[in-house]
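R.M. (postdoc): so does anyone remember the format we settled on? I'll just put the structure tokens first.
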């Protein structure tokens, strides 16, 4: 059995219903974890959907964990994770699951496989600037990390490395889980011939000839904080640590002076740096609402 866990947060219903229809036709069970303030009306004529609503927004890691536990309890062998702003074709789940099945038969230590990502802004394939290729197997390129949306997981191997790290709440959750898998000698891979359109960030901006993602101000809190939290962990790749430390001042400048809502963005970045240095985890409101 194949299951899918779809995480929602104030979704665009036209796009979301299109995704849910495509997913429900390809898998046996769909678990929806809705972090929106209000219940999202899901009007689909299917009985294979489980719906969980968390008005207080429990974060992406906790949402994934609820979805994974739900799919394991339903007897699924494989679990596909999806964000609300991803687009998949009609063979997406079958092709990814087939690669995992083939890897099992060949005794490859593969725990998850994801697609080539096509950015919805540029309509071009996303090519990470810095990422180490570990190995190649036929249509698979084993790498150090892949993003969570579109990721299909072999659930029989999850117990070996554990679920997602809820202390991170959102940013870096997918990469941290992949690095932890590598620490346990398990691999993640990109399927060379499987593509998925995905929205990365809310917008795009350019500084000094470099195009970068622009997100909401509060996302900066998690991005900056989680860099400092992950710097402490030995299994996090050194290239990731070095790159993020080097670009941190540039990102702070760009988000402080080149975007709108400058003071608000600066506040969230400074709070993130403070909490990252002192090791605060969880949701922003849990750490700062009472201050």
């Amino acid at each position: 059995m194949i299951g899918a866990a779809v995480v929602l947060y104030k979704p665009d219903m036209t796009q979301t219903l299109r995704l849910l229809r495509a997913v429900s036709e390809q898998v046996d069970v769909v678990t929806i974890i809705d972090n929106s303030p209000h219940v999202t009306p899901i009007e689909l004529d299917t009985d294979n959907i489980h719906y969980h609503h968390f008005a207080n927004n429990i974060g992406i890691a906790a949402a994934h964990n609820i979805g994974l536990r739900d799919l394991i309890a339903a007897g699924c062998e494989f679990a596909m994770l999806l964000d609300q702003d991803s687009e998949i074709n009609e063979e997406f789940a079958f092709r990814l699951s087939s690669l995992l099945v083939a890897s099992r038969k060949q005794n490859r230590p593969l725990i998850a496989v994801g697609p080539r990502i096509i950015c919805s802004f540029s309509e071009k394939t996303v090519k990470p600037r810095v990422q180490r290729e570990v190995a190649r197997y036929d249509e698979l390129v084993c790498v150090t990390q892949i993003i969570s949306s579109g990721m299909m997981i072999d659930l029989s191997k999850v117990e070996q490395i554990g679920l997602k790290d809820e202390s991170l709440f959102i940013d870096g959750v997918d990469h941290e889980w992949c690095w932890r898998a590598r620490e346990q000698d398990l691999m993640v891979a990109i399927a060379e011939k499987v593509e998925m359109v995905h929205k990365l960030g809310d917008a795009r901006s350019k500084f000094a000839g470099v195009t970068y993602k622009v997100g909401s101000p509060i996302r900066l809190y998690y991005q900056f904080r989680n860099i400092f939290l992950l710097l402490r962990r030995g299994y996090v790749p050194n290239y990731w640590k070095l790159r993020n430390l080097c670009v941190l001042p540039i990102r702070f400048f760009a988000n402080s002076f080149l975007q709108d809502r400058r003071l608000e963005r600066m506040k969230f970045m400074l709070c993130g740096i403070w909490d990252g240095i002192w090791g605060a985890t969880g949701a922003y409101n849990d750490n700062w609402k009472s201050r």
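R.M.: ...and that's the designed sequence above, right after the tokens. Also worth knowing: The domain at 2-198 is CATH 3.90.550.10 (Spore Coat Polysaccharide Biosynthesis Protein SpsA; Chain A). The chain has a mean pLDDT of 91.
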